[in-house]
């Protein structure tokens, strides 16, 4: 009798262990930035679609913006807690590469992505959307918008512009890199010193800056070329417009990658493939307000007022990684003088 009970217990433990291990094998942990997984972001839509496709469970962790997420992945490198990081931008690429974080994977669907977006030739990370920063203006308060970065220095814009801090904000950092790409390391600080009188505020993040703009506190805000499309889609107004600049606009590309050390490599690869599929890409325009890297269908009609710049002045990613800390310190000194 005792032998039968013991045998039953062993069998129960054995099969329970199989179920637990099977469940663990079908759970994928994804780190992403908070707005991606917010109620208005793509996360709730695309993650549910993937769970239905893979018959698995996603554990999504959103500790903050993309820089915070990357730093967490770096700290956990010796004992990875996530399988995928989603939301790395091109300004952070080389930093991530220097820490050897990624498990390379070349998705068969990557062939559908434009070559200029496939910037990592070693396939450590895969692009999923892109956009361009721009100065968005209130057309009811401004008949003639600025046509280039130099126009923003005009005294008529005194205390009429709000931007984000490059030390704490993704669009703010892209703005800093934009000015370096246009004016060079010898001229960008002089540009910022001349711009300073026209800045009402330099906020920590995009939400605070855009809130000041929509409340009417300023007529110009640093945002994205797609911001006016949001207002047209949900507010049915073309009041807000993106100023198209003659020198082009700085481009942001967002990436995801499989983290080295994952024990769920097959499922992680399946997610990267899914990320380039129409179930994911079609959700991007009206949730993340960026351009999809694979256009499976026509963009929403509201995107007709979201201009795609003809040129995109950019900085080499390796140079950004090497010089970024120096640039930020110099910017801080110049803005505090």
Specify the overall morphology.
globular
Question: What structural class results from the helix and strand content?
Answer: alpha/beta
CATH domain topology of the largest domain? D-Maltodextrin-Binding Protein, domain 2
Strand content is 15-25%
How many separate domains?
A: 2
**Assembly category:** single chain
Q: Biggest sheet, open or closed, and with what strands and sense?
A: 10 strands, mixed
Order of helices and strands: HEHEHEHEEHEHEHEEHHHEH
The CATH architecture category of the largest domain equals 3-Layer(aba) Sandwich
CATH class division of the largest domain: Alpha Beta
* End-to-end distance: 86 Å
Which percent range fits the helix content?
Answer: 40-55%
Average pLDDT number: 91
Strand-helix topology:
Layout: H1 2-25, E1 27-32, H2 43-54, E2 57-61, H3 66-75, E3 84-89, H4 93-98, E4 126-138, E5 161-164, H5 170-195, E6 199-203, H6 206-214, E7 220-224, H7 227-235, E8 240-243, E9 251-258, H8 265-275, H9 278-281, H10 284-287, E10 291-292, H11 317-336
Parallel strand pairs: 1-2, 1-3, 5-6, 5-7
Antiparallel strand pairs: 3-9, 4-7, 4-8, 4-9, 4-10
What would your notes on this structure say?
This protein has 337 residues and is of the alpha/beta class. It has two domains: 181 residues, D-Maltodextrin-Binding Protein, domain 2; 151 residues, Periplasmic binding protein-like II (D-Maltodextrin-Binding Protein, domain 2). Helices cover 40% and strands 17% of the residues. The chain contains eleven helices and ten strands. Strands 1, 2, 3, 4, 5, 6, 7, 8, 9 and 10 form a ten-stranded mixed β-sheet that branches. α5 packs across α11. The longest helix has 26 residues.
């Amino acid at each position: 009798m005792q032998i039968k009970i013991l045998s039953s217990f062993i069998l129960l433990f054995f099969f329970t262990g199989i179920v637990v291990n099977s469940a663990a094998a079908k759970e994928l942990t994804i780190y992403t930035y908070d707005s991606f997984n917010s109620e208005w972001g793509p996360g709730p839509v695309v993650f549910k679609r993937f769970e239905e496709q893979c018959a698995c469970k996603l554990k999504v962790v959103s500790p903050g913006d993309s820089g915070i997420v990357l730093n967490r992945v770096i700290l956990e490198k010796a004992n990875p807690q996530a399988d995928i990081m989603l939301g790395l931008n091109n300004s952070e690429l080389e930093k991530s590469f220097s820490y050897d974080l990624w498990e390379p994977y070349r998705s068969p669907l990557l062939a559908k992505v434009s070559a200029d977006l496939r910037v990592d030739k070693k396939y450590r990370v895969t692009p999923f959307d892109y956009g361009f920063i721009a100065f968005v203006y209130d057309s009811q308060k401004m008949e003639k918008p600025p046509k280039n970065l130099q126009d923003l220095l005009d005294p008529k814009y005194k205390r009429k512009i709000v931007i984000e801090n490059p030390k704490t904000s993704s669009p703010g950092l892209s703005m800093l890199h934009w000015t370096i790409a246009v004016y060079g390391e010898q001229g960008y600080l002089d540009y910022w010193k001349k711009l300073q009188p026209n800045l009402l505020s330099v906020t920590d993040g995009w939400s605070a800056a855009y809130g000041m703009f929509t409340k009417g506190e300023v007529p110009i805000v640093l945002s994205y070329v797609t911001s006016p499309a949001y207002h047209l889609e949900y507010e049915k107004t073309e009041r807000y417009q993106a100023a198209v600049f003659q020198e082009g606009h700085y481009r942001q590309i967002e990436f995801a990658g499989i983290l080295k050390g994952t024990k769920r490599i097959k499922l992680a690869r399946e997610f990267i493939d899914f990320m380039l599929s129409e179930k994911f890409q079609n959700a991007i325009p009206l949730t993340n307000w960026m351009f999809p890297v694979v256009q499976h269908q026509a963009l929403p009609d509201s995107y007709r007022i979201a201009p795609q710049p003809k040129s995109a002045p950019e900085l080499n990613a390796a140079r950004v990684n090497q010089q970024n800390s120096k640039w930020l310190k110099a910017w801080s000194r110049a803005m505090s003088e």
